[in-house]
């Protein structure tokens, strides 16, 4: 193991211990496999008073060997219908984009990944994303169009996702 992956491993172990000692409302997190600190299983509870309320959405958070210098990827394995989630479940929010200037010019460098982010701040950002979708730069164009133009259809699709997530418990 290189020194950067060793540092990443120690940092992730510390974040896991901190979350075990001081759980945060709205989600739970643990390792997918006890032998690998780089892949986490996260369950996000649909935020109250949102379309996702009552859902239990599972995701995998995969950290690179050079964490915290590079962001993890987060992918829902539960069915998810949201403008900022790709059809394959991958979450698209600014803080998960590589640090520095946005090659497309949509985001400020200050909105992108910085090493100060923790598992907690990432998941809280995803919960916030569920509460207020950004349809300006959607990952799922179809969901974004539906969110803008056919809100009732969007709500129906999300409530199906919520029901499915409850059945999976």
From TrEMBL:
Protein name stated in the entry: E2 ubiquitin-conjugating enzyme
Keywords recorded for this protein, A-Z: ATP-binding, Nucleotide-binding, Transferase, Ubl conjugation pathway
Species, as recorded: Kalanchoe fedtschenkoi
Catalytic residues in the record: 92 (glycyl thioester intermediate)
One MF annotation (Gene Ontology) recorded for this entry: ubiquitin conjugating enzyme activity
Keyword Transferase: yes
Assigned protein family: Belongs to the ubiquitin-conjugating enzyme family.
Function: Accepts the ubiquitin from the E1 complex and catalyzes its covalent attachment to other proteins. Involved in the formation of multiubiquitin chains. Signal the protein for selective degradation.
Lineage: Eukaryota, Viridiplantae, Streptophyta, Embryophyta, Tracheophyta
Top-level EC class: transferase
Pfam families linked to this entry: UQ_con
Domain UBC core: 7-167
CDD domains (alphabetical): UBCc_UBE2G1
Enzyme Commission number(s) of this protein: 2.3.2.23
Transmembrane segments: none
